[in-house]
Amino acid sequence: MKQAYQYLWNLLKENDVVVVGVSFGPDSMALLHLLTEIRKKKKIFLVCAHVNHNVRSESKEEATLLAEWCQQENILLESMVIEKYGDDNFHNEARSIRYHFFESLVEKYQAQYLMTAHHGDDLVETILMRLVRGSTLKGYGGFSQMVTKNGYQIIRPLISTTKEELLAYDQKYHIPYAIDASNLKSVYTRNRYRKEVLPFLKEEDPKVHEKFFKFSKLIQEADDFINHQVAKVYQQVYQNGTLALDSFLLFDSFLQKQVLYQILGEVYQDDLILVNDKHIDFLMKLIHSNKKNSYIYLPNHLKVIKSYHTLEFLQEGEKDSSYFIELNDYILLPNGKHLKMVDSCSENGNDICRLDSTSISLPLYVRTRKLGDKISLKGMNGHQKIKDIFMNRKIPMKDRELWPVLVDSKDEILWVPGLKKSKFMKQKNENCDIIIKYY
Fold first, then answer.
1. How many domains does the chain have?
2. What is the pTM of this model?
3. DSSP at 23
4. In contact, 361 and 412? CB cutoff 8 Å
5. Same domain flag for 342 and 431
6. Given pLDDT bands bounded at 50, 70 and 90, which one contains residue 318?
7. CA dihedral in degrees (384, 388, 389, 390; nearest 10)?
């Protein structure tokens, strides 16, 4: 914590205003206390920003305890309760709401800084998860200690501190906090890294987080340099939603991919989390295809059309209901349903799909129906038309256009979620290494 304290001492000036995101967990409470220690020697104004996510019964009590502590320490508390969530991914939606609230407080109090309690262990977990999932070069670097925004900076002062050090600090100064029980559940990917991978790395080197911090800074410096080069190429080859392929193909393949990332960043903006390196591979295959006129669909109805010497990016929205998406872990489907890969499941209905990866061709894709689609049924000879399945189950026409069809890389239909299983489906007592739930 000495390093974090020194960083903050050097950073903060007299009369600075700091908004601090505080959940009442051990990390954010340690950060808030650290800032109160600096406030004893340097005149700064603290605003504690708390968001009650309204999903745990303990949340209300924790908000009350935080309010009492802030009153005791003479800290201004601003809080909000999330009353309702949409149909989006919960964690992404909660994060978006949280940061919009924080930013509103930065503007309200004309703050110079927004601080969060992301620490060194968080950085290790984030980098590992993105390396496994796939990301951009910048994404592989995790998160930065400082991010400059319009008129203020987001600061993560604890990036050089471990979770163990934070808990010891809380204990030393008798700082109150609460543990979110969901952080202990192995159902969440990050928690599995936290409980299984991180302890192994720390056995190898107790200061492994410092190595990851250096790695993160190196990646970010490299990304800054590359972005400068990419910006030059981007201006030359991409205008008004159209990529000039003849000029584009003159550049190195690495620069080509970075330009594609920048284009997708411009198209998706806040939804960029939907895109990973697999989508870049799809675009590169489309560009280098021998077909003169062809197209693919990316998430959120983005249609990418190759036409001789150009690649056009069209956001079709509701104009065209068809889609084609790779299934990695989770998809929020255009019909409002979800497809999610799970570790285990006791159910065995048409909403569960069990597959053996050795008998199919990976990766898996989810698409809308095509003319003439047929599925090989389990336990039966021959095929059945998808059209007939919809008719037999009396699926409305408007629902058929968005209904998902799971296929492998050879476009073999494996499953019509909720309706029909193929011959590739495995029973609970059969060997399978892929389980998908439709809900």
1. 3
2. 0.59
3. -
4. yes
5. yes
6. very low
7. 150
